[in-house]
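Quick one: structure tokens for this chain, please?
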Amino acid sequence: MSQVRLYLDEDSMRRSLVFALRARNLDVLTAAEAKMINREDDDHLAAASALGRTLFTHNTADYCVLDQQWIQRKRTHSGIVVAPQQRYSVGEEMRRIMRLISQRTAPRDAMPVGVHFQLGLGQRVDRLEAEIADLKRQFIEFKFE
């Protein structure tokens, strides 16, 4: 099985979160490491996709719109994980990311292209697993209680 590889944009690349994720052997690349500081959101998504990385951001509104624009243009990406900014401690955010990834680790060809995850409150991941086959636009929201 291949492991999900993350790209953290400028909004989400807190050093403490990067350190916590890497301490758990997660492959993480930050926008700073990729020399992508002060770039447009579309550039970040394109860079993450070119590298086969799932983009992690706190910029929920812009990336949800961008995801829809990419779908309309028939462009694919390696996934977007969005989480509300300032809602979680670093430890809680790291645990939720790790739980999400443990649910989604799969061979690359088994993953839907253009998957969109959301870390938030509400629905459970297992409830959404049954709905994946019905998705027409390859848009999935994962919310944790």
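The radius of gyration is 14 Å.
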